[in-house]
Amino acid sequence: MALLFRIAMQSVGLLLSLLGWVLSIITTYLPHWKNLNLELNEMENWTMGLWQTCVTQEEVGRQCKDFDSFLALPAELRVSRVLMFLCNGLGFLGLLLSGFGLDCLKIGESQRDLKRRLLMLGGTLFWTSGITALVPVSWVAHSTVQEFWDETLPEIVPRWEFGEALFMGWFAGFFLVLGGCLLSCAACSGQAPLASGHYAVAEMQTQCPYLENGNAEPKL
């Protein structure tokens, strides 16, 4: 029963982490971190991402332009690029390591301690990846709120608002953190049974020679 519960926890944790990793990749390249709706021209919508700015018009359609210079970007966008790349890289490593550490995987069944360590390391990488995704998304959201309520700007100046990518990034970070915690808990819960199993094997190896000789009690 404990083994089934541990396998179920590992499966749920890995699925949540995989979902969060996919969402983080989509968030990185989606040009909808900020939205700008012009009240004077409702048929024109602007969106901004980490890599480009897009404008959508009813007659022309959607047109996007990449940022010309990395150094010319605001600080939150520059740091967000680096952190989102780091998040995706850590998530990929977490998938590889935790995948080899699953109990349902037949590879390396004789090395239980190594599989437990791989699962623990994979869960830690997922947890770190989730935090790395939450930081840039929350930073951009905080900057957007500050700019929106900036009293020094005239009221007629359009203000940027939250884009769909920010909410997707929050979900990605939450899934990565939750999945990493489940994998780490599953790895820790498997430590005690493994230790008791080693003691049982050692005791059986001690008793087997005496059982083969037909003696009920070991000689002192």
Structure description:
The protein has 220 residues and is α+β, with helices and mostly antiparallel strands. The protein contains 5 helices and 5 strands; from the N terminus they run αββββααβαα. It has helices spanning 2-29, 75-100, 112-148, 164-189, 191-212; strands at 34-37, 44-48, 52-57, 61-66, 161-162. Strands 4-3-2-1-5 form a 5-stranded antiparallel sheet.
Compact overview of the structure:
This protein has five helices and five strands. It is α+β, with helices and mostly antiparallel strands and 220 residues long. The longest helix is centred in the middle third of the chain and has 37 residues, at 112-148.
Rg estimate, integer Å: 26 Å
Task: Give the overall shape.
Answer: elongated
| Quaternary class | single chain
Quote the average pLDDT. Answer: 82
Low-confidence parts: 191-214, 216-220
User: Which strand order do you get reading across the main beta sheet?
Assistant: 4-3-2-1-5
Could you tell me how far the N terminus lies from the C terminus, measured between alpha carbons in angstroms? 38 Å
Tell me the number of strands. Answer: 5
What string, H for helix and E for strand, traces the elements in order? HEEEEHHEHH
Q: How much beta, percentage-wise?
A: 5-15%
Structural class determined from secondary elements: alpha+beta
